[in-house]
Amino acid sequence: MEAPRLHYDIRVYGKVQGVWYRASTRQKAEELGVTGFVQNMPDGSVYIEAEGPKDRLDALVAWCHEGPPLARVTQVEVQQGPLKGFSEFVIRR
């Protein structure tokens, strides 16, 4: 039986723009088989919506606390939300 899919809204704060955070997030999400999107926010944070089994989403969240080598993450906020049925993981501009 397949694990139920969940939806996480993730906000990442710190030095997370201009450090390949979005591209690295997409790469990690694709490795994990997670769908959704990542985008930069006007306040300097990065916003992610991700869907997949809980263990894979939790692995993505754990990765978000580190991010790519040049990132300096200070805070990660996660909230569960309603499924939206994403079919892939994309970078939104």
Main sheet record: 5 strands, mixed
Structural class: alpha+beta
CATH architecture of one domain: 2-Layer Sandwich
Classify the fold: give the CATH topology of one domain. Alpha-Beta Plaits
Helix share, percent = 10-25%
* Low-confidence runs of at least 5 consecutive residues: none
Q: How far is it from the N-terminal to the C-terminal residue, by CA?
A: 36 Å
Shape, per Cα inertia axes: globular
Order of adjacent strands in the largest pleated sheet? 4-1-3-2-5
The amount of beta strand, in percent, is 35-45%
User: Radius of gyration, rounded?
Assistant: 12 Å
Reading the helices and strands in chain order gives EHEEHEE
Question: Can you put this structure into words, describing what you see?
Answer:
This protein is of the alpha+beta class and 93 residues long. It has a domain at 1-5 and 20-71: Alpha-Beta Plaits. 25% of the residues lie in helices and 42% in strands. The chain has 2 helices and 5 strands, in the order βαββαββ. The chain has a 5-stranded mixed sheet. Helix 1 packs antiparallel against helix 2 (54-64). The chain is globular, with a radius of gyration of 12 Å. The protein starts with a strand and ends with a strand.
Can you give me a brief rundown of this structure?
By secondary structure, the protein is of the alpha+beta class.
Key terms for this structure?
five-stranded mixed sheet, alpha+beta, Alpha-Beta Plaits
